[in-house]
């Protein structure tokens, strides 16, 4: 199975196809028609999971808000709150990503939407082009951490963890990370003597809030409804789409009926890619479970070292390396069935385990050779990889330090789910 998986990836098969090829090896090994029926049934159940309905709807809501050109309003709100700090536009970049995460749930969408607006402004204000791209890539890693994170919806649906609990954990962890990013931005901008802007007066603050109220209302309604028990995650996603349609087509009139075809098509393509790999992953997870692969791997690791932390360190290194080459969702579905049971055996709570895996894989998005965030930021910011990486390394080190803190301080992940009695802890 492992050889088939590796060969499939090396010859250029999409991840879902490589995983599907791997599952067929199990069928050939058993030689039973019933095995093929079970694998097909598992995949079908994954494709038709009720929770997965939230994925295309959150993607569609984000697509509508981005195409509706509501990004400038988020930037204005961020600017009046943090623009007067040292490195004001770097701080605005980070806070804007926090706001945008509540709309898109996707790091790549964050860079594409926010980066095309904030990076030219930073360069014009005297920021090195590489630094502008680096801080944009780093801030975009907040999107999969903060709700409504599409990665968390998939993780919860596939591995049976309450999505609302993952969202709650993501809020505390995401805010913790955002504060750390802003502190680092302050010191690096001070080192490079980058500018700050005058403090906004109360009239400017109120004007920005009024202009951005409709845009900021989307994440507030989603989270308030889920955590308040008013509606489920799937219902929240449907309401997010309705809200986005009203905001962009009725209130601001920045999206017309003729635009809907391309918006729906873009959301459909993205959703299809996510859901197909999730369906195949459930077949793969079934085989991993029946073959007791996690226990076999754990026994092998413990034979190498009886120290729990050494075993976890080896798993983390594997995730860091994998994150350099493959996207976060694909890695979670690929490695999750194997490593999640190992975390559970060491006493880690389901929600805490999910946040650990999501954060560690996020580090790979900032590292060469195939880090998705840095490639997109270089493309949008029109800078070379070496130009960006000389500013990126301190940020990568910070990401690793934050991941270690999240591993050893479980309360960062479990406090809110426990307080709100959402389960998963």
TrEMBL record:
Question: Where mainly found?
Answer: membrane
Please give the InterPro entries that the UniProt record associates with this protein: DctM, TRAP_DctM
Ranges of residues in domain TRAP C4-dicarboxylate transport system permease DctM subunit: 2-412
- TM helices/strands, residue ranges: 44-66, 131-158, 164-187, 208-230, 236-255, 267-289, 309-327, 332-349, 355-380, 392-412
Which subcellular locations apply to this protein? Cell inner membrane
A Pfam family it matches: DctM
The subunit field of the Swiss-Prot or TrEMBL record says: The complex comprises the extracytoplasmic solute receptor protein and the two transmembrane proteins.
Family that this chain belongs to? Belongs to the TRAP transporter large permease family.
- Protein known as: TRAP transporter large permease protein
Q: Which organism is it from?
A: Pseudotabrizicola sediminis
Source species taxonomy = Bacteria, Pseudomonadati, Pseudomonadota, Alphaproteobacteria, Rhodobacterales
């Amino acid at each position: 199975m492992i050889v088939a998986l590796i060969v499939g990836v090396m010859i250029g098969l999409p991840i879902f196809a490589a995983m599907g090829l791997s599952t067929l090896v199990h069928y050939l090994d058993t030689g039973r028609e019933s095995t093929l029926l079970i694998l097909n049934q598992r995949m079908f159940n994954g494709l038709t999971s009720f929770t997965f309905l939230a994925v295309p709807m959150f993607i569609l809501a984000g697509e509508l808000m981005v195409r509706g050109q509501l990004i400038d309003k988020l930037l204005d709100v961020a600017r009046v709150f943090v623009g007067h700090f040292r490195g004001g536009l770097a701080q605005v970049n980070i806070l804007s990503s926090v706001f945008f995460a509540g709309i898109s749930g996707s790091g790549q969408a964050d860079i594409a939407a926010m980066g095309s607006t904030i990076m030219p402004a930073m360069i014009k204000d005297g920021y090195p082009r590489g630094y502008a791209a680096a801080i944009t890539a780093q801030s975009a890693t907040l999107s999969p951490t903060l709700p409504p994170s599409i990665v968390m919806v998939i993780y919860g649906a596939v591995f049976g963890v309450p999505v609302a609990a993952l969202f709650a954990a993501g809020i505390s962890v995401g805010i913790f990370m955002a504060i750390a990013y802003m502190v680092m931005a302050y010191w690096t901008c001070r080192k490079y003597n980058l500018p700050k802007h005058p403090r906004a007066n109360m009239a400017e603050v109120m004007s920005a809030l009024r202009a951005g109220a409709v845009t900021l209302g989307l994440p507030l309604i989603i989270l308030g409804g889920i955590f308040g028990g008013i509606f489920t995650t799937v219902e929240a996603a449907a309401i997010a789409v309705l809200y986005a349609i009203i905001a962009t087509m009725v209130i601001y009139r920045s999206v017309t009926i003729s635009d809907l075809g391309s918006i729906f098509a873009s959301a459909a393509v993205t959703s299809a890619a996510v859901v197909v790999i999730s369906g195949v992953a459930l077949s793969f997870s079934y085989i991993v479970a029946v073959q007791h692969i996690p226990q076999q791997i754990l026994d092998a690791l413990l034979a190498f070292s009886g120290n729990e932390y050494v075993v976890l360190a080896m798993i983390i290194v594997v995730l860091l390396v994998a994150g350099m080459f493959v996207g976060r969702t694909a890695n979670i579905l690929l490695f999750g069935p194997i490593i999640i049971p190992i975390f559970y055996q060491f006493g880690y709570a389901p929600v805490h385990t999910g946040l650990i895996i999501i954060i560690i894989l996020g580090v790979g998005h900032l590292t060469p050779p195939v880090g998705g965030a840095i490639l997109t930021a270089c493309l949008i910011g029109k800078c070379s990889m070496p130009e960006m990486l000389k500013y990126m390394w301190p940020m990568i080190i910070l990401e690793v330090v934050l991941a270690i803190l999240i591993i050893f301080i479980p309360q960062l992940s479990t406090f809110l789910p426990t307080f709100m009695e959402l389960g998963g802890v």
